[in-house]
Each structure stands twice: as structure tokens, then as C-alpha cells.
Input
Amino acid sequence: MPKNQQKTVFLGMSGGVDSSLSAVLLKEQGYNVVGVYMKNWSRDLPGMKCPWAEDLADAKRVAVKLGIDFRVFDFETEYKQKVVDYMLAEFKKGNTPNPDIMCNQEIKFKLFYDVAMEQGADLIATGHYARVGRESEREITLSSRPTLLMAKDANKDQTYFLYRISEEALNRTLFPVGDMLKTEVKKLAAEKGLDNAYKKESMGVCFVGEVGMKDFLKEYIDIQPGEIIDVETGKVLGMHEGAIFYTVGQRHGLNVGGGLPYYVVKKDIEKNLVYVSANLNHQELWTKKLELKDVILRDLMVMQGEQNTEIQVRLRHRAPLIPAQLEIEHNKNNAIVSFEKPIKTPASGQSVVFYDSEVCLGGGIIR
Amino acid sequence: MIYLDHAAATPVSEKALARMLPYFSEQFFNPSSPYLPANHLRQNYEYAKGQIAHTIGAKGNDIVITAGATESINLAFTAIPALMNDICVGKSGEKSTKNILILEIEHPSVRATARALVENFSGADKNVKSPLELREIKVDKTGLIDLKDFRKKLDENTIFVSVSLANNELGTIQPLAEIAEIIARERTKRLESGKIIPVYLHSDASQALNLVDISVARLGVDLLTINSAKVGGPKGVGALYVGHGVKLRPLIYGGGQEVGLRSGTENVPGVMGFAEAATETKGHLSGNRKKYEKMRQILAKELEKSPISPLFLGNKKHQLANFLPVSFPGVDAERIIYKLEEKQVYLSTGAACAANKGAKSHVLTAIGLSDEEIAGSLRISLGVLNTEENAKEAGKLIVQAVSEETQRVSGGKQAQQIKSDGCGVQNA
Output
């Protein structure tokens, strides 16, 4: 008799290959698997279509093929409030938020977790590329402290998006494809007859779709013309459609003619000004220090740690790890990350995620 | 493969395909070109149009060729702005709100078109009353029009009525002639009171052309939509019958083809295929009806053997002979579909939640089904690809799938069951 038979796992199924194969693997491991499609917020505007209905059908098809229970959780209202409204509010403040991180924190590993537990789940699972380090693989106890670990496939690792999820949820989470390479996942999925094994991967934020963030924001935020100013000369180079639509470091999308590419150096949201420079070496485009807020600390090492801890950080999903020094303020809410060599200044609102080799230590949001 | 979804699409018949083929590469001319071969093509095209019109008892000049039923419906509804322009503007300017009546179980192509029209007429100011109102006519438990409700909602301000000849989920056939008669009486009343505001009757007959003997005169319609793809013709071709005196506005402007109502170079092969298929099907109306009725009986008898007794939907007396809408309450019909597709048996759900953007069917809701009955409903529609043998086989396979699903739900360890809506969607 399979060892896990008594345990019920609610698996988030998106219709993609990763969560589909996760369903197969969990079932083979003897779990009682309940597939769940989370219906998140999507606007159906002409030309702005989120293929959720097809995704739902794909997910359900896999569930039926495996003979497992399947449910649809409607999280539209919560998703709109916790993810979309948050994102719009942040943009209005001049920041560049990451909605995927917020979605994991608020929806997948909070709301989904809570509803699953309410409905009788012992564990939850998703198709994320990440791993959980546990004191005991056999027994998941309430008191055990899980660690969030990078995926085996370093190129697919998704811990950058997961650094804010609660310890309680992580403790009861399985990532069935976390210790597989993507190539292995695809191969095995094809062997298991999962037709969606070659389906195009969904990338980015679903509700934004293919039109891109700027066009999406324009649906909510009125265009407000403002000046584009050369940070060095103070000369007005042209007009933009609203400072909030621009991100520091951005090169494209400026209505500045002429040969040289300009980079956004800084924004003045109140005065609706965008400062640019043609000089990629302009000092404001580079920094050796980042101030973080809303810091999450996942690991005892940093939580009780010395004032200056040597860590590695990741500034974007799939970006390389960079050595850095972490200094945490007493309130544990703010932190400063410093680098030996200057880095290209990331936009405020983006996340910096901390690592100690494969262990995700936490992270914070750039002020 | 056992195909049970002829209400969604039909294969192009051999004859229709053969009739189309010469018009792709050999007879490729533009029918509007000035040289003789193009003139010949024009004649062939007009002849084919005449054949299409003939199947509904009309003449070639009475129909407009479109790119399908949805376009035909949209074009039919342009009668409304044309009328509003005539009666609300000018000296005699009507001030009272006009209304459109549609059946509450109409296809989305009717519902959405009607709603968009009303929306376009209402201004940005929500306090100002819209000059156009949409009213939905109720149906009974079998999907048949509630004539009492219709009489109540039809008044001196009604300018447009749209009732499908046969419903696309239930196959229920509406008493169009009776509806037309009620409208005729309203017209008489208006004439007698000296208020000459027209009221038009449109019917979407997309599902019915191959099973009902349609005559526009007998039905008493002013506008009628038909479709090639449901009767063994190619997709992307449809027609709209336009009665005398009905003013429409083009949706597509250009070179003025189709008497200016539908510009664009004619889809010659498409029209040839439609003409052939429509003529072919018209010749076998009663034979096909008997054939499908027999198959339906055989299939229904198999379904009776299910562990959950089937709830047959629609109106037994007034139903398209190829339709067998059925619900297995408590079973998730979508799961049945995915199970059956692995055995190459293809059919639709009544609800079709995934395809329906998660909304439950407005048709099944309107006929008063419970969420459980909606979630368990399948739409079986027979046609040219069916035989008595494969209808029986299909019945067996459906019952087998239903049994398996029933066992899965009752046996094994189940997580706590939570009540959800007809689409299986739970609100957090």
C-alpha cells in the first residue's frame, strides 16, 4: 500500500505542463490528489484576452484523465484587491511592483492554502520550480521549520517569486517538479501522455496579457503629458505620457528623437518629470547600495544574525546571484544591501531576494 | 470517431465540396469584372444565391450573403437604428421609449447584439432615460415561448422582435407563425390608431434549415438568418432574408456588393457550397427527420440504463429531430466529455462552462434547472455522421462514463464536498 495514501493534497493546476506532471507524480506517490484551478482576475477587453478558459479546460482534462477530483476556486475579487489594486497603487506612487510575488504571497500561498485546509487538505502543492528543506521528509509536523530552497534546475528556479510566502504554508507545501530539470519534466510529461507537454509556457502576468504593462496601465491611469529632461544639461528633450509609465533604467519607449539611446535616470512623480541621460555611465544609473523595506526574513541565520552578513542576492527572476552585504535594521523591517562593485540601479518597488547558496533567506522591496 | 455535435458544426458534404472546387483556381474571377468569363461567374453566383433563397421560399434578390449567421444577425439588427432614425428624428419626433423583444434563451449572437444596440443608444448620462429598451420574453420548462408573457411585453412601442426558430441548446422549435400572427394584430391596431410605427420580426433559423421546412411567407418573418456550416456547407457563409420594405444599414462599406448591404468581393466558392448543401438537405427533410428520430430513440433507450436516471430536456413535441439534450444530475458533464474524448466520442455540454467563460448556461437557467442539473447536462446532436449502430454504441459509452464517474465520487477517499454552482465554481 502506498505510504501517502492517507494524505490529501490540494494541487494548484494551471493547465501547464509543470502542474500537470505534478498531478501525475503526486498520484503515483499515493496521495489523494484534488486538482484546483484558481480563477484569478482577468479583464476581457478586445485585444486583451487572458486564455483562462482554455487553461481551465486543459487542467480539468488532466484531472479527468488521472481520475482525480477537480475544483475551481473563484479568487477574482481577492485577486483584484490584493494583486491588481496593489500593483496600480504602487505604479501611482512611482514604483515598479512585481505582481507575481504579490500573487504568491496573497493568493496561492495564503488564500488557496486557507481554503484548501478548510476543505480537508493535509498539504498543498504547486508546479513551481523550488524545493522545501525539511527536518524530516517523512513527517511534516507543525513545529518543523521549513527552508525554501532553489530548484534543481537553476535556470528555472522560481524562488525569486516565492520569497514572501508564509512559513506556515511552506511547511505544508510540496513542489513535485522542484527537483527535476525542465527538460526532464517535458520528457516525462510526454511519456505520461500529457498532451499539453508542448504547450507554450505562460509567461508574465496573465491579466496584462500580450499588450504589455504600459497599455494595461493606460486603462486605469489617464495620460498626463510631462517633460523629458536631460539630467546633465537640464534641457527639455521632448514630452512623455506620464512619469508613472516609465521605469528607471528603461531605454525604450521615450519619445525622444535623434540618434542616441536615452536611459531613464530618475522620475519626479509630483512634478511629472522624467529625467534621462544618454550616458549609460551616468552615476545615477549605478549604485553600490540599495535600501529595502518590507523585509521578509526566512532563516534563523539572518534573523538572529550579525549586523553584516555576507550573502548573495538576486535582483530579478533568473538574474545571476551577486555577492552582497546585508545589514538589517533593529525593527527587522528595513535593510540595506551593499555591493562591492556598482550595479545598475533597479527600479523602486522591485524585490531583492537573499540567498545563502541554495537557501532562500528572504528578501525585501527596494525603496 | 462517433460525432454527436452536429449542432456545432457539420462536415462539408461531398456534393457541396465538388461544387465548390472549380471556383478556387479555375473560375477565380471577380464577379464584378467586365469580361465575359467574369460575367458568367456572376450568373453562376446569382443562380446559387437563388438556390439558397429557394430553400426558405424566397428569391435570390431577397437575401444578402454574409460571412455567417452571426453577421446575418448583426445585420438584421441594423433595422433598429434605421427605424429609430426614421421615427425619432424629424418633425413627428417620437418621444416615448421604444423596445426590442428577444427570447430569453436566444443565442449570444442575438443577446449580445441587442444589448450592444441598447447600450449605444443610451447616452453617458445615466439619469436620462434611454430611448431604447430591451425586454426578454420568458420560456416554459421546455424552452417554449411563453405567449402570454410575449403578448404582455409587446406594446405600441415595440419595434423589433427576435425569436429563434429552434434553440441551439435544447432544439425547441418555436411557434413562429403564431408569434407572427400576434405581431400582425399589433400592426393592425397601430394602423387603426393612425400611428404607423413598424415592428419587424427576425428569426435565427441557423439550427433548423436541415430539419424544418422553412418558408418565410408561412412563418411570417421579416428577417431570417440561415447558416451554411450547420447544413453540410462550408463555414464562413450565411445569409439574411430581408423582407420587402425592411430598411437596413450596412455593417461593412465598400464597393456596394449585395445591394450595398454587404460590400466585399463575393465569396463565390462558399456560396456554391452553401447552395449545394442547402438544396441537398432540403430534398431529404422528412427522410432525415425520420432517420434521426429513430437514432435518437435508440440512443435515449441506452441512456435509460444509466445508474443515474437521465433527465431529457426540451420539448418532446416541438423539438428538432436530431437533438437530444439530457442531464445526469449530480454528475459533472465536463468530466464526461473529457472521458469520452479519449474514446473519440465527441459531444458538448449544455453548460460548456470552460468555453462559456465560466458562466452557466443562460438557457438551462431560464428553463428552471437546478445547478446540479445544469452541471450534469450534455447536448447530443445527431447528423450525417451517425448511424443506428454508432448511436447505440455512443449511448453505451456515455452510460459507461457516467457509471465510472458515479463510482469515483461515491468510492475512494473524498475530500469534504463543498457546494458549488452549476459550473463547479466555488466562491471563496
